[in-house]
Amino acid sequence: MDEASVEPERDAIIATLTPVIDGLAATFGPMCEVVLHDYRRPEKSVVALAGSVTGRAVGGAMSEIGMRIVARGEDAGDELNYVTRTRTGKTVKSSTMVLRDSTGAVFGAVCVNLDVSAVTEARTLLGALAGIGGTSAELPVTTFGNDIDSVVDVILDDHHLGRHQSWAGLDRAARLELFRSLDERGVFAVRRSVEQVAGRLGISRASAYSYLAQARAASDTTSDTRSDTTSDTRSDTASDSAGGHA
C-alpha cells in the first residue's frame, strides 16, 4: 500500500481524535495538557491542544520526544508515565501514545502532560517533616517549543557544543559521535535540519551530509557485527549442547 492511499485514513484518525482532546484535559483538571500531534508536518505538528503546561499552541512544533519517536519509525512505541522537567522548571509527568495507520506506520501521537510540580514540592515538604527527606534525582530537561529550529538549537547546545567545545576542537571520532547522537535523537528527521546543524557548526552542508552518512554507516556496521556475534554464539552454544548429549 503506497503512502498516498493511507492519507485519507490518517486524516480521519486525526479528525476523530480532535474533539476528544478537550474532554481528556477537563477530566484531569487545570494542571493537565493534552496535545494531538500530526508528525507528517513536524514543524507544525500540534494540530489540537487543550490545557496549558508546556506553553505550546496549535501550529507549534514537535518536542525532542517527538523527534525521537519519528527517528525510530515503525520501532517506536508508547512512552508512558515518564517524568521530565521543562526549561522553566516545571516537573511534568507525561505519556505519549503513538498513532498508527492500518499499515502499522507511525504518523502522530497523543500526549498527556501533567504538571506535578506542586505534588513534588508537597512530597519533599512532608518527607522533610517526617525526617525521611533525601536528595531528589536530577530530572532530564525536555525542550517544548512552537518553533522547531529552537528545539534543534537546544539539542545542539545540550551536546558537546554546550560543554564549550568548538567543532574545530573535536577529533573525527567525536564529530561522528555528535552526528550519531543527533541522528538518534531524531534531529535529522526534520526538514532543513542538516542545513541548520551545518550553520551552527560552521561547516558546509556537504560536510554535514558526509558526516551524517559516515555516522549512519558506522552504526549499521556495529549493528551487523553484534548480530553476527550473537548468531555465532548461539551456533557455538547449540553445537556444544549437541555434543554434550551425544
Describe the structure.
With 246 residues, this protein is of the alpha+beta class. It has helices at 3-17, 20-28, 64-72, 117-130, 148-158, 172-184, 193-201, 205-244; strands spanning 32-38, 46-50, 79-85, 91-100, 106-115. The protein is built from 8 helices and 5 strands. The protein has a 5-stranded antiparallel sheet, sandwiched between helices. The relative contact order is 0.11.
Short recap of the structure:
The protein is an alpha+beta fold and 246 residues long. The protein is built from 8 helices and 5 strands.
Strand order of the largest sheet: 2-1-5-4-3
How would you classify the helix and strand content by structural class?
A: alpha+beta
Question: Whole-Å distance between the termini?
Answer: 51 Å
Secondary-structure element pattern, one letter each: HHEEHEEEHHHHH
Q: What global shape is seen?
A: globular
Strand content: 15-25%
Number of strands: 5
Question: Radius of gyration from the CA trace?
Answer: 22 Å
Return the average pLDDT rounded to an integer. 81
* Unreliable segments of 5+ consecutive residues: 237-246
- State the helicity in percent bands: 40-55%
Could you give a short account of the major beta sheet?
A: 5 strands, antiparallel
Helix run count: 8
List keywords for this structure.
single chain, 246 residues, alpha+beta, 5 strands, 49% helix, disordered C terminus
Question: Layout of SSEs?
Answer:
Layout: H1 3-17, H2 20-28, E1 32-38, E2 46-50, H3 64-72, E3 79-85, E4 91-100, E5 106-115, H4 117-130, H5 148-158, H6 172-184, H7 193-201, H8 205-244
Antiparallel strand pairs: 1-2, 1-5, 3-4, 4-5
Helix pairs in contact: 5-7, 6-8, 7-8
